[in-house]
Amino acid sequence: MSIVIRAAGPSDVDGIALFLHRQMNDALSPDNWRRIMDYPWHADKPDLGQVAVDGDRIVGFMGKIFADREIGGRTERLCNMSSVYVDADYRRRGIGTGLHEAVTADPDVTYYVFDPSPYVRSVTTHPKLGFRVLDDKRYFWQRSGAARPGIDVAAEPAAILSRLTDGARRLVQDHAPYPVQPYLLQDGGEHCLVFLYRRTSKRGDAQHEALYVGNPELFARYAQAFADWLLADPKAILMVDHRFLRGHPVAAEPQSIPVPRYFKSTRLEAADIDHLYSEIPLLL
Ligand SMILES: CC(C)(COP(=O)(O)OP(=O)(O)OC[C@H]1O[C@@H](n2cnc3c(N)ncnc32)[C@H](O)[C@@H]1OP(=O)(O)O)[C@@H](O)C(=O)NCCC(=O)NCCS
Q1: At a CB cut-off of 8 Å and minimum separation 6, what does 256 contact?
Q2: Does 138-258 match 3-130 at the fold level?
Q3: pLDDT digit string (tens) for 1-12?
Q4: Against a cut of 0.90, is the pTM above it?
Q5: Which option is the CATH number for 138-258: 3.90.1150, 3.30.1360, 3.40.50, 3.40.630?
Q6: Which of 36, 119, 121, 122 maximizes ligand 1 atoms within 8 Å of its Cβ, making it the mutation to test the pocket?
Q7: pLDDT band for position 150 (50/70/90)?
Q8: Which of 89, 90, 91 best tests ligand 1's pocket when mutated (most atoms within 8 Å of CB)?
Q9: Which of 18, 99, 174, 282 has its CA 20 to 30 A from that of 49?
Q10: Rounded distance between C-alpha atoms, residue 247 and residue 264, angstroms
Q11: Residue 115 C-alpha to ligand 1 middle, in angstroms?
Q12: Region at 258 (left for phi over 0; alpha for psi -120 to 50; beta for the rest)
């Protein structure tokens, strides 16, 4: 039977969730996998990704997580490509490439992907697909041992919301159901909204990684003070992608990210793209 690659819709959700659970990662339940197709911030999703089928059998999938964002005074549609997987019995027949091509077909949408595994990366970075490096460096901070952190930080969502205007309020509200943490760094009348998510390294150390930095200039000034405020353990780290600081100088040197992130856009620059509204909050 011939393999067809087509847009996934609501009737495919159960089958795709089971496919990803059984074949890609059984540490995530089918309900966990459903989240990448059932996120609440984009009511009229164009589709739920692309699925490859052989008759009734699902043999491949790539998820599309859409968000309409206000960037540079315009509404831009972003799409985080997530959870690409081809059934092992069907590999090396062009399905992975076909899924990439079908997913990234709209030139008005900005596509981006994090942490592709090595084989996925060999597909994503093929020149014919037109992807560029989104970021390949990030900054790391640890506690400096300063007696008193010199920054005023709000961490309670209610306190943060009371100080924000509409666009930034929406970011906090849209992410409230997810295990990502907003912080508001404050300096007199200026502030910087930051979102972090926390994971634990193989050695058991806390890693706080930035999804968003709203005011790069203020953040760059107070990055070490924020790390001193945030990090209880001397081995814990704060990590921020290089592009998030938009060239504002900091004392730290950026280090290479083991697997670069990639994007494809005719409309946006790398620094315009953050990690909110992506698979990170949905799959944590
Ligand atoms: C990566 C993956 C999607 C590729 O799917 P696929 O249908 O085999 O891809 P294609 O047939 O379109 O391969 C395109 C090219 O990618 C490269 N490639 C793909 N798989 C490869 C492999 N196992 N070894 C070397 N190169 C490979 C080759 O250059 C290939 O072209 P070629 O077959 O003409 O040499 C599939 O192997 C897969 O699902 N792997 C596991 C995915 C995964 O771990 N996802 C985790 C989250 S990122």
Answers
A1: 136, 137
A2: yes
A3: 699 999 999 999
A4: yes
A5: 3.40.630
A6: 119
A7: confident
A8: 91
A9: 174
A10: 21
A11: 15
A12: alpha
Q: Which two tokens stand for residue 281?
A: 């909050």
CA distance 281 to 177: 9
How long a stretch of residues is the chain?
284
3-state secondary structure of 176: coil
Q: Check if 119 has its Cβ closer than 6 Å to any atom of ligand 1.
A: yes
pLDDT in tens, 190-229: 999 999 999 999 999 999 999 999 999 999 999 999 999 9
Distance, CA of 29 to CA of 269 (rounded, Å): 35
Which atom of ligand 1 is closest in space to residue 117's alpha carbon?
Answer: 48
**Amino acid symbol at 281:** P
As given in the structure block, the two tokens for residue 214 are 């709203």
User: Where do the structural domains in the chain lie, given as residue ranges?
Assistant: 3-130, 138-258
Q: Return the CATH architecture of domain 3-130.
A: 3-Layer(aba) Sandwich (3.40)
